Amino acid sequence: MSRELSFIDKCIRGQELPDGIDGAVQAWHDDASIEMELSEYIGLTEEEYSAWLLDSSVILSVITARTNGQTFDEYIKGAMALPLAARGQGLSENSPVVKWLRRTGRIK
User: Fold this and answer.
1) Per-residue CA distances from 72 to 7, 9, 91 (Å)
2) What are phi and psi of 95, to 5 degrees?
3) Do residues 63 and 24 touch, judged by C-beta distance below 8 A?
4) Has residue 13 been placed in a domain?
5) Residues 6+ apart with CB under 8 A from 87
6) Which domain holds residue 68?
7) Is residue 66 part of a domain?
8) What is the pTM assigned to this prediction?
9) How far is CA 67 from CA 9, 24, 31, 37, 70, in A?
10) Residue 24: how many CB atoms within 10 A of its CB?
11) Tens-digit pLDDT profile for residues 41-96
12) Contact 56/42 with Cβ under 8 angstroms?
């Protein structure tokens, strides 16, 4: 039996839009037969999931990173090297995700 694509995989393939994540989370809550953690159902690594819990807009960064063949860390480090105006996706120095990444030593 083939496994259904995760929400992130569907976004990458153009089958879902990132703002549909609330529906995916609700589907996970509503379907008692799903025997996986929410992070796995959505398609997030532990690190991505932790960041997403802090700031749901991170989902755009996750999708962009995967589309570009990068890890979340690689994408964030590259984005943080850009001037603020070029970063996009809520990656300001004071965003909760950037603060968490710094606190956990993932970025400087």
Assistant:
1) 16, 15, 13
2) -70, 150
3) no
4) yes
5) 79, 80
6) 7-103
7) yes
8) 0.77
9) 10, 20, 29, 23, 8
10) 19
11) 999 999 999 999 988 888 999 999 999 999 998 888 887 776 554 455 556 677 77
12) no
